[in-house]
Amino acid sequence: MAKELSKTYDPKQTEDRIYKHWMEKGYFHAEVDENKKPFTIVIPPPNITGQLHMGHALDNMIQDALIRTKRMQGYAALWMPGMDHASIATEVKIVDAMAEEGLTKEEIGREAFLTRAWAWKDQYGGRISEQLKKLGSSLDWERERFTMDEGCNRAVRVAFKKLYDKGLIYQGDRIINWCPSCLTALSDAEVEYEERDSHLWHIRYPAEDGGKGIVVATTRPETMLGDTAVAVNPKDERYKDLIGKNVILPLMNRKIPVIADEYVDMEFGTGAVKITPAHDPNDYEVGKRHNLPMPRIMDDAGIINNNGGDYAGLDRNEARNQIVADLKDEGLLAETEDHVHNVGHCYRCNTTIEPIISKQWFVKMKELAKPAIEAVEDGRIKFVPERFAKIYFNWMYNIRDWCISRQLWWGHRIPAYTCNDCGKTVVEIDAPTACDCGCTVFTQDEDVLDTWFSSGLWPFSTLGWPDETPELKFFYPTDVLVTGYDIIFFWVARMIVFGMEMMGDVPFRYVNIHGIVRDEQGRKMSKSLDNGVDPLEVIDEYGADALRFSLAMGVSPGNDMRFYTKKVEAARNFANKIWNASRFVLMNSDGKTGTIDESKLDIADKWIISGLNTAITEITQNMDDMELGLATQRIYDFTWSELCDWYIEMAKPRLYGEDTQVKESTINVLVYVLKNTLKLLHPFMPFLTEEIYTSLPGADETIMLSSWPKVEFAGLEQDAKQMADVMELIRAIRGQRADMNVPPSVRTTLTILAQNENAIKACEEYIKKLAYADEVVLISNQNDIPENSVSVVCPVGEAFLPLSELIDIGKETERLQKELKQTEQEIARAQGKLNNKGFTDKAPESLVQEEKEKLQMHTEMKQKLAERLEYLESIK
């Protein structure tokens, strides 16, 4: 039964109530239903440390819009929720909290630390889930998962053992990325690079026989303490006599050989490089080829160890400064030049990474990458936009073994167990009870797995894998992954690798890539710039629908977008427009449910239904193509312009007339078009559309489970085209009247020389109402054109407005002259500003641009005013 809508729409009084109702009714839940086609999205699991930011808002708005559309289209639509344990980020938070109590994790031990970690997760972990609900996310909360819940934990252990048993996981001493702050290994994907200003130090290594020796160039003089060779290119004529001889390692007074290796770039620096195998990945490879010693000269915290001689105990940065000073004192610093280079830093704490040799667990990636590459090459997985496949391929073609062990306590502990008696190491899904040697006591590996290992299993572990659950059979592979371009190699690549390896099938069919949300100036939102915008504050002020719609209007696959508060305000105004239009329809509905009798449709009805059909076709295609920006622009244009500004105005005379059949037909069309418009809008403005839709006569219990609009009533195009042509004429007449400053209250006789007389006659009443005419006179030749009239020309015909009925020519001339003078003053003012270098050089670019736009606007106004005055002068 229809209910009355309040005078104004208040999101604060609506959104929480509606979301609670949806939850209670279980509308978000998806079940295995063999009578339906599945459509699945797994949420990129937010960290339990996280709070909702604009990136989350954009990401989840896109997913929610897609899942709501498919749900209405009759799919068994599952949007799987969950959270990520985020090893490093969470452990850092807990360690920091303990530090405030004067505690360290080593003091309380692993078990006590993990007890604190789980308590922290219970206290803060659900925060972002509640925030996603404020956004209107229709996630299947009954299925919510956590990367360390029992099911996901078991999936990780099973996957680890499968890979280990196939020889694809191994433990070994390799050069790895080490964070001296987080005190853990990092994978290549977890190292971010940025350009930094530094120096290139040219250091002389004296010859063993006292000769000049050789000069090497390095950006890291502190690592020279661990040098075990100097390398030159075998083709470099400058050093061919030194190859095979020894030089003295400065400050350490140790003999090291000069070796030849093609890795050396003859054009860089001096063409000779120091080789520190334990602290540089390239040097490590050279060291292996030449069987060089590989001494580590730093501990895990970046402090020089005893292999560093007199520099032991110094921080790596302190050691650098001291070493450079000592080299200078000994006359061994040949040159120092400015140098800009890429420096790797930890993606979590921004500390400069230290490459070190360390015993870690690795996944062999080359073999695993092949089927994952083929899945994208042959189109089983498509990137949207397609250009992002290049980033994926670049990473996968050049992939190296993945370091998966982390020296942390919070995370999935590696399921490797060492016998306390014989020392044999076994990998098992569950802790072993006895060794072949008879011992029953084992020690589990202390390390945990890289967070991205468990995240890589997310599309199928959340559906019950390794068990063959009904959900796994029905909902896998998933359909769309929505994510930012910044984690293509972090996460997307690993899900594809694990999907192909564990499931033998792709984890998803489409990867929808979006950019980041920037501020109004195009800057990345960050704490340092203090330019972040809290989506919860925006929701509190404008409502979730306004935020969602403003984000959708600006989104284009793969591209960054700027956040403007004005766009949110415009979206709120749009919501108010729909609310007011819906109130008008409801007040006149008289219980009508939108049942159309095609025989009773007039030309305006056919025009709006035809327009709705076009909108349905285009928006449905936009959603299929994941072009949400195009879809929202189309629904905005149709709703605001065609429905509200035109059709409702055209409907009013028929609603208020005496003919009850016309009135009944008109309100049915209004209800029909409004219902379908709300359905098209629902994926973007779920709360507003639910509140209005469930108030309409004969509506379903919720718009969420109503059917997606489909094209009905074919064959209306010809009448719709005639109406559209007449509307173009009406717009031109109204524009002409506005130019002459004629108020709507002044009505005149309108003379039309018709090109399409049938269209004019069919729309005569609409022309009268909307073009402010008290009479429409049709003429067939130019001899009947009234004198002193102004004309507008359109394909449907030429309309003539009698000037004497519209304006006082003398007064209008005086008004236009005054306006022309003011416009010329504005032009002079703007030109003066823009000709002032003090303004153009010092004022913000946005202010200068604003002045340029003002100058252009007033210049165009001046031209129009001059033309108008010239015309009035000609007809005096």
Concise account of the structure shown:
The protein is of the alpha/beta class. The protein is built from 29 helices and 29 strands.
How would you explain this protein's 3D organization?
There is one protein chain. The chain is an alpha/beta fold and 876 residues long. Helices cover 45% and strands 18% of the residues. It has 29 helices and 29 strands. The strands form ten sheets. The protein has a four-stranded antiparallel sheet with strand order 6-5-14-16. Strands 10-11-9-12 form a four-stranded mixed sheet, with helices on one face. Strands 27-26-29-28 form a four-stranded mixed sheet. The longest helix has 30 residues, at 845-874. The protein is globular, with a radius of gyration of 36 Å. The mean pLDDT is 92.
Distance between the termini: 63 Å
Number of DSSP E strands: 29
Largest sheet: 4 strands, antiparallel
* SS strand fraction: 15-25%
Radius of gyration: 36 Å
| Helicity, as a percent range | 40-55%
Number of distinct helices? 29
Mean pLDDT score, rounded?
A: 92
Class of secondary structure makeup: alpha/beta
Query: Ranges with pLDDT <50 over ≥5 residues?
Result: none
Q: What strand line-up does the widest sheet have?
A: 6-5-14-16
Q: What general outline do the C-alpha atoms trace?
A: globular
